Amino acid sequence: MQNESLARTPAPRRLVVMALTAALVVGACGGSAGTTTTADRAATAAAPAAVTATAAPIDDCGTRVPPSPPPARAVTLNQGATEVMLALGLQDRMIGTAYLDDRVAPAYAAAYAALPVLAKEYPSREVLLAHRPDFVYASYASAFEADAAGPRGALASLGIRSYVSPFGCAASARPPRVTLAGVFGEITDIGRVFGVPGRAQTLIDGQRAELARSLAPPLPGSGLHVLWWDSETKAPFVGTCCGAPAMMLAAVGARNVFADVAGSWANVSWERAVAADPDVIVLVDATWDTAASKLRYAQASAALRGLRAFREHRVIELPFSDTTPGVRVVTGIGLLADGLRKLAAPAP
Prior knowledge:
By secondary structure, this protein is an alpha/beta fold.
């Protein structure tokens, strides 16, 4: 797609294990059965207020998004947004989609195949409006630039609500770090907008259980220094302190060699990358910059060929869609953990 320099500027695209474990435990806990207490009666009395609260507008990138009525003609403008919708079983509310980064996850492939594709990348505003959407959902703020869907305010004036993933907001409105809590918050928001909060919670509970399985101790990244090479070759675009790569590496116990660089991603010099001499290199595989092309570039460079990670084939390839905030990032953590475990396994 976009080499994501548009969407993943010096900040779109940490979890410590204790925090993750706490989240899993809290998510699993429920109330105990027993007789009605004063607290129970107070909670019951507060129920009408809680129902009213769920109808409050969602603050999305500084834009207020009314959560009702549920949209019936939604368009998704990035693969991440598309897959959140499909994971929630909302394909019957979609009239179109656009902008694949790689392959749709097998679990959603059949539902995706039945959807109209409005454009290979972003559709023009004219094409979008011709399909009469009532809701536009994107993973990146770049979807609402003038040469794409157009400003969100202009869409709102036509009665079209919109939503951008919090981690794809413009820099001034973006959370300082990517967290799983934020990823789950996006799923919760979309569940509210489409009137399916139960489906959203079921999806989140399933992802928490998947994480618990993937991150069973010992954590496979403990003690390892990892370089996350997203794209580009002249000055590699790498995962830095605060984006999804940092969150994923922290989840598996690994150390990001560029954790001291601000933002989610940044271009760094090859001299710095070589000096870091990482134990493992993650290569992101996207349609616009494949893992294979990055590997060919490295093999053609004497300096990069000499890096221990390349010399000893300590490389993990991850699909782009499994490395960005969204419904697949939990799968990405599992793939990263599996890759690290395979590298640690004794040679046959």
